[in-house]
Amino acid sequence: MQFQRTMFTAIPLPMSVDDRQREEKRQRRRTIVDAAETVLDEKGRDAMTMADIADEAEVSRSLLYVYFENMADIVLAVTHRGFRAMRERFEAAAQQHDTGRAQIRAVGDAYVRFSREKPTLFRLVAQFESRAADPDESSERVRRCLAEADRGLQVISTAIRAGIDDGSIRQDLDPRQTAVTLWGATHGLIQLAANKGSGLEKRYNLDPGSLVNNGLDFLGRALADQDGS
């Protein structure tokens, strides 16, 4: 006797009331953060008001305080989004290359693109990093930003470790310390080009874009194994 195989299509179970409410809250919170990012792009941090965010999100101002404590809390939520976007770009860039040294250069290029394509998020990340924050004495949202920043740095240190293992990066380097050094140097180059670009061109005849690119080349050579390329 032959049996005919029957194909069944899985039917998703309906969401419970609690699940639906949680999803609605997540979506509303996301809408508010989207609105804040848009207003930050248009007006900047100093000019932004809670009314601006409420208008952009099409919600009442009182509803903002249901999801966030204050303006600073909303800005931190956008900042966390910036750290996450930066880390995701780092990961995507590193995954496209085989050697650790090539991964490091790709991550550096990704950081430069992030600063140009997402200037508001880049500024928020830079402002957050410029302030000292003790995880043990910080709010939950600050701790989330710190954790996401650490994950981004881990992408760099992992690439350095891979480079040490594959021979494209010097054996005498400490991955974590070198990762912090590379991040600081690259961040400084980006800030220098962005803030003093016109002055560099007038005083030294230096193209800001070339300055950053040459700086990344220099950092790559500094990483290279002394017996390698």
Automatic annotation (TrEMBL):
Pfam families: TetR_C_33, TetR_N. Residues 26-86 form the HTH tetR-type domain. Residues 49-68 bind DNA. The lineage of its organism: Bacteria, Pseudomonadati, Rhodothermota, Rhodothermia, Rhodothermales. It comes from the Bacteria. One of its GO terms (molecular function) is DNA-binding transcription factor activity. Keywords: DNA-binding, Transcription, Transcription regulation. It comes from Salinibacter ruber (strain DSM 13855 / M31). This is Transcriptional regulator, TetR family protein. InterPro entries: Homeodomain-like_sf (IPR009057), HTH-type_TetR-like_transc_reg (IPR050109), HTH_TetR (IPR001647), MT1864/Rv1816-like_C (IPR025996), Tet_transcr_reg_TetR-rel_C_sf (IPR036271). Gene3D superfamilies: Tetracycline Repressor, domain 2.
